[in-house]
Amino acid sequence: MANAELAPYTPHFRQAVLAPLLTQNAVQKAELTLSLSEDLPIFVDVVVQDPGGIPGRPARPELVAHTALKSKPLTTPEGRAVLLHAIAHIELNAIDLALDVVWRFSGMPLDFYKDWVQIAKEEAKHFLLLQRHLVSMGFDYGDFPAHHSLWEMAERTRGDILARIGLVPRTMEARGLDASPGVKNKLISAGDLVAGRILDIILKDEIGHVAAGNRWYRYVCKERGLDPISTYRELIQQHDAPKLKSPYNLEARRQAGFEEEELIYLAANGL
User: Fold this and answer.
1) Rounded to whole angstroms, how far apart are CA atoms 30 and 126?
2) 85 CB contacts (<8 Å, ≥6 apart)?
């Protein structure tokens, strides 16, 4: 078992993720994430010290309340760019969320950290696909305001791995599974076939991300002797998670490992 005193002196993977996590430039953050070497040892029991400044953020975009964001008609290039920018911002936050889990929470099985490293790299791929498409349209990440809701949930759940994986991948990211088909159809109808293909890539990967959340959420519930379904509802109330709204992508949620009892309750009550 690794000793916590080794953390400042021995290079290991759970420290290495701090470099992209603290990086302020968005493109560099994604590129550094993709370049993380998985050959480094993963000391699962080491307590990594918080360096402060997490997460690194660029000066732009301006962060505002989600209620202050305004959409524009998708019949215009700017309108499509605003929508794609919002998705790119979610993907950038998702990089930070995955990296944050790796360094912050010790004592999980080795495969847990490997899963979240892979998730971080896929989120980085998504961000770069969207950012490059924005550039091809004459825009860039940072050109429009964005909201901070995803990271706010990270702050609320920073002290408990069960709450973090219960409410970020299983709730916040699962909302993306629900929204993806409608957003894709709107962009394709507006003539942006490239964006449609990017969203297909994102949806396929995000099903796997939510599945990892489901798998590890149930693992922690079993370790603590908790019922996954009733505990999930308690976590939603405790951490003021956003209420979900239909339509739900039930097929994608099934592929991501949600149980039928959960889907029936969701369809009847929301969350």
Assistant:
1) 9
2) 61, 134, 139, 141, 143, 144, 146
Inter-residue contact 175 to 244 (CB < 8 Å): yes
Separation in Å, CA 39 to CA 2, 35, 36, 225: 17, 11, 9, 34
CA distances from 93 to 5, 21, 259 (A): 30, 10, 27
Residue 102 CB contacts under 8 Å (≥ 6 apart), including other chains: 13, 14, 17, 113, 116, 117, 120
How far is the C-alpha of 235 from the C-alpha of 159, rounded, in Å? Answer: 13
For the record, the structure tokens of 145 come out as 């305001």
CA distance 44 to 46: 6
Mapped onto helix, strand or coil, the DSSP state of residue 141 is coil
Catalogue all structural domains in the chain, each as residue range(s) with its CATH number: 4-54+76-269 (1.20.1260.10)
Return per-residue pLDDT of the chain as tens, 271 residues. 444 444 444 468 999 999 999 999 999 999 999 999 888 888 999 999 999 999 999 999 988 877 778 888 888 999 999 999 999 999 999 999 999 999 999 999 999 999 999 999 999 999 999 999 999 999 999 999 998 877 888 899 999 999 999 999 998 889 899 999 999 999 999 999 999 999 999 999 999 999 999 999 999 999 999 999 999 989 988 988 877 778 899 999 999 999 998 888 787 765 5
The beta strands (E) that lie in 160-238 are given as: none
Total-model pTM: 0.91
- C-alpha distances in Å from residue 176, one per residue of 5, 6, 81, 199, 253: 40, 39, 18, 10, 10
- Measuring CA to CA, how many Å separate 258 from each of 170, 177, 200, 223? 9, 12, 20, 19
- Residue 63's SS3 state is strand
Which among 84, 262, 103, 259 is positioned nearest to 187, based on CA atoms? 84
